[in-house]
Amino acid sequence: MQEATFMGQAAQAPSGTRDFLADELRRRTAAVTAVSEVFERYGFDPLETPAFERLDVVTGKYGEEASSLLFKILRRGVHEASGQADLALRYDHTVPLARVIGTHGSKLPSPFKRYAIGPVWRADRPQDGRFREFVQCDVDTVGSHSPLADAEVVYAVADGLQALGVEDFRFLVNSREALRGLLEVYGVGLELGDGVLATLDKLDKIGEEAVAGELAERGVATATAEAVVADIAADSPDRLRAKLETNPRGKQGLAEIDRMLELTGGLEGRIAFAPRMVRGLDYYTGAIWEVEAVGYPGAVAAGGRYDQLVAALGGSDMPAVGGSVGIERILATQETAADDRRGLDVALTALGHSEAGTLRLARALRGRGLRVGTYLGTSGKLAKQLKWADDQRARFAVIRGADEQAAGEITVRDMATGEQHRVADDDAVAQIERLLGH
Amino acid sequence: MQEATFMGQAAQAPSGTRDFLADELRRRTAAVTAVSEVFERYGFDPLETPAFERLDVVTGKYGEEASSLLFKILRRGVHEASGQADLALRYDHTVPLARVIGTHGSKLPSPFKRYAIGPVWRADRPQDGRFREFVQCDVDTVGSHSPLADAEVVYAVADGLQALGVEDFRFLVNSREALRGLLEVYGVGLELGDGVLATLDKLDKIGEEAVAGELAERGVATATAEAVVADIAADSPDRLRAKLETNPRGKQGLAEIDRMLELTGGLEGRIAFAPRMVRGLDYYTGAIWEVEAVGYPGAVAAGGRYDQLVAALGGSDMPAVGGSVGIERILATQETAADDRRGLDVALTALGHSEAGTLRLARALRGRGLRVGTYLGTSGKLAKQLKWADDQRARFAVIRGADEQAAGEITVRDMATGEQHRVADDDAVAQIERLLGH
């Protein structure tokens, strides 16, 4: 198609956003459908919230850094001139989930098991493959303390990854309580706790020495910092178990991990206790996990229990556990295979005055579920129309020239081999289906 | 689930927006899928553009009234304090389509046949069932003058309506050229043309007298205004044909209508020339149509040819034809049938210490594609757990009490009849599939 100019120059999609053309969009839609079907099998229900929330609902929920990444919507009408915002685009699916529990509480089943797959918007710098509009794929159970709920989320995510074609993966499990227990053992005050864990989470990024240094800056004695870092970096379950032997909090954390491993035994070797896996986010309270997969950078999924978050978001006190599949990261790593491109089953050329007959045949073929295009250009030349059929990746082209029309027939051309068949008009649909192997 | 309060009171979704809970969302997703499948059969390709466009891309594209309905996004970071906007939420799918032609021109097939089904946002007053976030369902062919393209859109929309369960519908066809020809016959200057047509479009709303009055205000002589209104209101093809006999523009319009009726003969009586059907929008240039359906208020679909719009939106000069299915109106009119509600195939109760076995069975059943829930609550009482299974609309509940565990069996309970079957653990999946009739 001829390049068009827009406002004198080709306008682009806004920075950090993408237009999804057919092939890529079909691949994305198929991925979302596949994951949805898995979540449905686990009894999770779909939930869709508006693209934006009231600014007062999200304000103060994400911390300072995240708040600066909100896309805020200007007030409208006479209030527009105020330059003030009253709405903000969805930043994640979690705050909307907490809000929905407030709005619809009594209408929701208990526990509330929901999945949400849809775009969120963050005004991050659009670089390093980061987008400002991207799909998050979340599954959460709100209202259950049961470890079965934790295990169910893990299984659902594992099956979701497989549905996305990620086979060679491994769940790394840890527990916030075990990690806090370790800090207790070393006498690190709990008031330093979450910050310390956020720092420990950087081990893979900045290394042991830098992490120990940052812990010292946070007020942990140097020798203690080095010992804690060494324990975590060793990534040895036995070593951590030994350290936590006499610490009640730590032992509770180990019990959470063991229960998780017991209940997810069906993953057969694809789940393990990984003391080094810390997770940076503050809000986790119990078992936490991350999934690494061969061929994919970083984590392809992550989650855990967050029993205080719904209350912290302004909802009532409610236990919760959830996970998120990194669908954008997975889609970005997988290539669009050439045969993902969807062509036409049948391309109908249009020669002479046979349009009504062409549309009749098109309609009959579409009625059989086939994907059918008709030539809409201006050329009366067969070669040009067959070139169009080829561009459309058509398996067969139908030709209805003067000859064919006089004989009450059509020619069906196999676009791969060039082989042609003459077929009676009356029999056209059945013959084309036969040629397509239907 | 217990009502939660959010910020001290139950927060709502923003005014004019909706949360879609499971049953309704599944119905909406099924509707979108059904229409998409129809459009795919017609060789249209899906297109998804970002939720927002650059403000300079949309500014001046919609006219004054529509511009005041844009949701504008505040600049971010250090620019936030300026109170200025630089982005706007998508107002329709048409301006993004024109922009995409500018951005991706040479990568797009020619003609470019695309469908777009997704939310748009308008800051309308949220009343009369109008929403500020609603789904538009558009199909357009850009780059073809062929009447086949017009007919293809009509057929695709007709099949789309049927896929949505709208059976008893009728296409009303007219032509902008025929209507402009009629105005020429009466000596109404073309400079008054579009405004006059917008007024004529109000016939059903405000009646003949008021329309004639408004035409007079627009500068049409009173007698002429009354004559034009009478011709349109009569809704008689023969009368309009007679009037246009000697007017070249009018005759071209009639030819467009006749061609459309010829090419859409397959709709058998569900399409007709309707002189009274005018369509208010300025941008149509050729054949136009609207669809009325028994049981639905207003039009359930509409469309037409708009050969100058893409250029007017800043793209290059490109013929175009399209249609829009009123999917929100259709969904709002149809009731969610009780059996649209999706229940569980199997609800697994959890008694005693059988969780690992319960999860194993759950996994095996889910592996067979069944929708399976496990009890995640705290009650150890079977009656309470069966109540949960009932709330989940489960077809079968599985019970694994101490008895069953000792015998290596499970009990499968038909939740509708109360009938119970004892089944060996090893045979559980096969027996449950048999009971489900799979």
From TrEMBL, chains A, B:
InterPro entries listed in its UniProt record: aa-tRNA-synth_II, aa-tRNA-synth_II/BPL/LPL, Anticodon-bd, Anticodon-bd_dom_sf, His-tRNA-ligase, HisRS-like_core, HisRS/HisZ
Catalytic function, reaction form: tRNA(His) + L-histidine + ATP = L-histidyl-tRNA(His) + AMP + diphosphate + H(+)
E.C. number: 6.1.1.21
Keyword presence, Protein biosynthesis: yes
Residues binding L-histidine, per UniProt: 92-94, 122, 136, 140, 279, 283-284
Aminoacyl-transfer RNA synthetases class-II family profile domain: residues covered: 1-331
Record key words, sorted: Aminoacyl-tRNA synthetase, ATP-binding, Cytoplasm, Ligase, Nucleotide-binding, Protein biosynthesis
One Pfam short name: HGTP_anticodon
Localization in the cell: Cytoplasm
Single GO MF annotation: histidine-tRNA ligase activity
Biological processes per GO annotation: histidyl-tRNA aminoacylation
A single Gene Ontology CC term: cytoplasm
Superkingdom per UniProt: Bacteria
PROSITE patterns: AA_TRNA_LIGASE_II
UniProt-listed SUPFAM superfamilies: Class II aaRS ABD-related, Class II aaRS and biotin synthetases
Keyword match Ligase: yes
PANTHER family: HISTIDINE--TRNA LIGASE (PTHR11476:SF7), HISTIDYL-TRNA SYNTHETASE (PTHR11476)
Assembly: Homodimer.
Family listed: Belongs to the class-II aminoacyl-tRNA synthetase family.
Protein name (record): Histidine--tRNA ligase
Organism of derivation: Streptomonospora salina
Gene behind the chain: hisS
